[in-house]
Recover the amino acids of this structure.
């Protein structure tokens, strides 16, 4: 794997964000991605994401960079042609397991913006690891325009059938819009700084 030269930048925390890289992403998703990136930068957080310059991913990184934030990416070799060229750090890997580990291991908080199968796989793995107590980090879903409603209904079905506990059903924190995502982040990092234990 290859790593770009890094530039220093102070930060409050590392936030791993999963999102669509499709060029067909709706404009509302693109706008939200840019706003999340900007909000992270304004708070001094480092954005960790999938490294692409296109789709919601690209908007996310551009929003953070335009606001003076630090952005680090992890991308597959085969997608290097769409890698964002302005990142502070870009790691290229040869397989998805390495990419997912690179994104997950760096994060203090996880956010899932609207995305397709890759985003679904990534956030599912993070949820399973939280369920197994491998970590206790917050997991936020940006449910923009009800994007995650069907997934949440599926979780409800699992809970109703008794195969998902009520506690584990509540693991993802559902946020209706970008301001709510940023507000949840603020609370988490304020509590972390104060040494408050999270459940």
């Amino acid at each position: 794997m290859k790593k770009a030269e890094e530039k220093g930048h102070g930060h409050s925390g590392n936030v791993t964000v999963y999102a669509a890289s499709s060029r067909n992403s709706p404009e509302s998703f693109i706008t939200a991605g840019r706003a999340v990136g900007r909000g992270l930068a304004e708070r001094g957080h480092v954005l960790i994401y999938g490294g692409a310059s296109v789709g919601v991913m690209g908007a996310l990184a551009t929003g953070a960079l335009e606001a003076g934030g630090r952005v680090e990416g992890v991308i597959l070799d085969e997608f290097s042609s769409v890698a964002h060229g302005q990142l502070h750090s870009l790691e290229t890997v040869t397989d998805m397991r390495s990419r997912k580990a690179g994104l997950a291991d760096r994060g203090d908080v996880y956010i899932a913006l609207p995305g397709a199968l890759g985003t679904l796989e990534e956030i599912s793995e993070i949820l399973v690891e939280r369920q197994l107590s491998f970590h206790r980090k917050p997991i936020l879903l940006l449910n923009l325009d009800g994007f995650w409603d069907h997934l949440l209904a599926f979780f409800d079905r699992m809970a109703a059938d008794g195969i998902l506990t009520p506690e584990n059903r509540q693991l993802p924190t559902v946020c209706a819009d970008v301001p709510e995502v940023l507000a949840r982040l603020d609370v988490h990092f304020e509590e972390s700084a104060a040494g408050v234990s999270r459940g």
